[in-house]
Amino acid sequence: MLVIIAAAAENNALGKDNDLVWHLPDDFKRFKQLTSGHYIIMGRKTFESFPKPLPNRTHVIITRQKNYEVPEGCKVVNNLEEAIAICPNNETIYVIGGGEIYKQSMDLADKIELTRVHTEVEADTFFPQIINSDWSIINEEYHPSDEKHKFAFTYFTYIRATKEEI
């Protein structure tokens, strides 16, 4: 199963200058809980935004750079199709960004785990528009803002709509 996982503002903003534009500890915990033990696919810039590889996950980095150096245990490929192909069959694989990789994976994904951050921010990277006729929301969980979370947010789980639903 190919799952897109992201946190995006109401205006689909993901980040600016290769960094997140908010700090949501509960969303980080959820991301870790969902992706731990799995393959995670990302673009080079997303990978470079981490101080080091995320623990207990196999990183698959997409880049056009030749001879791109990565730490042991990480895999490098040239495109999304190669990234998916090197992941084990019958496993849950997570696409974790950035904007262009999300865009390329929208037609291939089976599920979207989206944290909708209830604000609009300035950004240079955006999540693709979710076409409602292609997806069904199967779970929704609202979290108000609090002392640790400047913005309220909602977890949405989407699955690809079946032909019968359309």
From TrEMBL:
Annotated pathway = Cofactor biosynthesis; tetrahydrofolate biosynthesis; 5,6,7,8-tetrahydrofolate from 7,8-dihydrofolate: step 1/1
**Which keywords has UniProt assigned to this entry?**
NADP, One-carbon metabolism, Oxidoreductase
Could you tell me which CDD domains the record lists for this protein? DHFR
EC number(s) for this protein? 1.5.1.3
Q: Name the Gene3D superfamilies for this protein.
A: Dihydrofolate Reductase, subunit A (3.40.430.10)
Q: Which reaction does it catalyse?
A: (6S)-5,6,7,8-tetrahydrofolate + NADP(+) = 7,8-dihydrofolate + NADPH + H(+)
Gene Ontology molecular function: dihydrofolate reductase activity
Top enzyme class, one word, equals: oxidoreductase
Domain of life, per UniProt, equals Bacteria
Instruction: Please name the InterPro entries in this protein's record.
Output: DHFR, DHFR-like_dom_sf, DHFR_dom
| Residue ranges occupied by any DHFR domain in the UniProt entry | 1-160
Task performed by this protein: Key enzyme in folate metabolism. Catalyzes an essential reaction for de novo glycine and purine synthesis, and for DNA precursor synthesis.
The record ties this protein, via PANTHER family, to: DIHYDROFOLATE REDUCTASE
Family from the record: Belongs to the dihydrofolate reductase family.
Q: What is this protein called?
A: Dihydrofolate reductase
